[in-house]
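STRUCTURE:
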């Protein structure tokens, strides 16, 4: 198991050991002690799973009052997984990092509390599973506009398929103006 700090050091790329042979493969998806040693020290309380088609972009989502850290895996297909630092006062505020997660590389991305999260499907379809450190609360569901020019994410997708909700998320400047962001 390898844990790599990204350009946003709190965001960690996890590279599990995958043992492949003619029968298929075996891997540990999560081991609390190994992940703690790798810098991921939180209790996960909920697992979520989604299936999406090519060019589906989900995000950028966060919860402000009841924040969630996430450990994201791509079980089938390939995605660009993205985290944006939205913590007011953070030295890396407004910066983003994106990593390819796929069934082939078996990588996972840890997105800590205080970051918005989203992903775009780069394969015909993709099945995503992610662990959350807090429970989902629809009343605290918040978002950031996926194509905010002040953030400048390079999504690797020219015509994303978006939900109505994600088409109408606020820009980072609007979230700043209404004090709608988590603190650092």
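SEQUENCE:
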């Amino acid at each position: 198991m390898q844990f790599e700090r990204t350009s946003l050091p709190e965001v960690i790329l996890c590279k599990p050991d995958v043992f492949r042979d003619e029968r298929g493969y075996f891997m540990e998806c999560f081991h609390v002690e190994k992940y703690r040693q790798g810098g991921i020290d939180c209790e996960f309380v909920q697992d979520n799973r989604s299936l999406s088609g090519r060019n589906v972009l989900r995000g950028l989502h966060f919860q402000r009052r009841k924040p969630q850290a996430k450990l994201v895996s791509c079980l089938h297909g390939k995605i660009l997984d993205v985290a944006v630092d939205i913590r007011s006062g953070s030295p890396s505020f407004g910066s983003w990092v994106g990593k390819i997660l796929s069934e082939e590389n078996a990588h996972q991305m840890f997105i800590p509390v205080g970051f918005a999260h989203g992903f775009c499907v780069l394969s015909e379809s993709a099945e995503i599973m992610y662990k959350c450190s807090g429970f989902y609360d629809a009343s605290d569901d918040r978002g950031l506009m996926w194509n905010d020019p002040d953030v400048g994410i390079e999504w690797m997708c020219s015509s994303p398929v978006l939900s109505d909700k994600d088409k109408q998320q606020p820009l980072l400047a609007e979230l700043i103006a209404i004090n709608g962001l988590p603190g650092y």
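REMARK: DSSP finds three helices and 13 strands in the chain.
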